[in-house]
Amino acid sequence: MNKKPLILVVEDDPSSLMLATVALEAGGFAVDGAGSAEHARQVIAKRKPALILMDIGLPGMDGLDFTRELKSKARTAAIPIVALTANNMPLYQRAAMVAGCQGFIAKPVSPAVLTEEVRAYLSGSRR
Predict the structure, then answer these.
(1) Is residue 122 situated within a structural domain?
(2) Does residue 59 have a cis peptide bond before it, meaning omega lies within 30 degrees of 0?
(3) For residue 4, what pLDDT is reported?
(4) Above pLDDT 70, what percent of the chain?
(5) By CB neighbour count within 10 A (0-12 exposed, 13-18 middle, 19+ buried), where does 118 fall?
(6) What is the three-class DSSP state of 33?
C-alpha cells in the first residue's frame, strides 16, 4: 500500500485551512490541520508530518516562533516547514527563512500551484 505523505497545515483562518486541505487532498496528500501552535504540537505528537505549511500570523505563539521551536528539537528539526502566508513582503520572507522555513508561499495561492509547490518541496527540487 502506498502511503500518502502527511501535510500539516497550521492555519488559524478556517476558510484558508479548508481551501488548503481540499487542494492538497485532491493532489494526493493526507492532511491534518491545526489552528494554533498548541494544536499543532498535539498533532505532531501523534503523527509526524512529511511537511508543514506554516501561517505566520497565528494566535498565541506566531508561526515564526513555532518554526524556531520545531527546528530546535531533534524529533522535528528535519521536517521541512514552508511559510504559507498573506504577509508577502520581503521582510516577512526573510524572517521566515531566518526562523528556519525552507520556503515561502504567498496567499492567495491557487490549488494547483499549492499542490505543485508542496510536491517540489517534498522532492527536494525546491530549496
Answers:
(1) no
(2) no
(3) 95
(4) 98
(5) buried
(6) strand
From residue 69, alpha-carbon distances to 40, 61, 107 in Å are 12, 10, 24
Look up cell 491557487; give the residue: 110
> DSSP character for 26?
H
| Domain carrying residue 20 | 6-109
| pTM of structure | 0.95
Q: Grid coordinates in use for 68?
A: 524556531
For residue 67, what pLDDT is reported? 98
> Is the per-residue pLDDT at 1 higher than 90?
no
Residue by residue, DSSP assigns 91-103 as HHHHHHHHHT-SE
Cα distances (angstroms) measured from residue 109 to each of 80, 113, 114: 19, 7, 6
Amino acid at position 106, single letter: A
Please tell me the total count of domains within the chain.
Answer: 1
